[in-house]
Amino acid sequence: ESIFMATFKDIAKLAGVSYGTVSNVLNGKSNVSAAKIHKVEEAAKQLGYVTNTQAKDLRKGRSNRIYVITPDFSEERYHELMEGVAESARVAGKELFCISSDNDPMEEKAILDKLVPMKPLAVILASCTPGGPPCRPDSIPLYLAFRTAQERKEPFSYFGFDFSAAGKALAEEAWNQNCRSFALFRGDTRFSDEKAFGDGIASALTARSASWESFSFSTGREIRGAFPLCATRHFDAIFASSVQAARALREALYYQDKGEGNHTRIFFLSGKSTSFPEGARDQDMRPFRLNYRLC
What distance in Å separates the CA atoms of residue 188 and residue 91, rounded to the nearest whole number? Predict the structure, then answer.
């Protein structure tokens, strides 16, 4: 049996544990202490969640369960996505399970393979696999979030944003604020969102005969890419494809500044809840807010 969960937020807050811990407990993973398991189960019980058996669901032909698979639980957009799906699942009376692939394509494939015989109602996947998920769209009711399967011919369902339009809008905003030297800081361009974001910026800057320098980062290692970028030379504006990348740039610029007062504006994609503490080095943070909840 498993605990019915409407939102991770309610259970995690009451139990005093993280979202990841709640997900691990609800998915029966063994890397959680007995004390934390007890806290999560007690919190769920206090909040009035009920139990359901997988066998009962499977007799109906398709289970009552929705799965959300993300590369990790820490990145803001995945956190907001899970909250949005959780809210919709609660209203619809569906069970929700969130699983992290730990940014490992092999783990992502193993999770999807395991879900196929479980007949989920839907699987929402923010893939960590460049080019698309390692399965066929007819094997499981799969919905891709944020990233399309750009290297695959199969017609996967997709919901997300026009990242090219977002990049273009940021570049136009930077130009209108009299920025004239630019850098682009983004992740692996084999992912459709990263590529489209850069393409949008390139389109807007090319139309103005402006040039820019491009830098890349690996997921989870944004700070390693930020310091070399900021040490290169001064830029009026840097475009970042994520909140994590923007924060890494913010720190690198702070430590690279020699007291000359050179302000570099950071234009970046963010969620609705992104916030930075008030301070001198936060005046140049320019978020482009997207509703990553989606649902």
Answer: 36
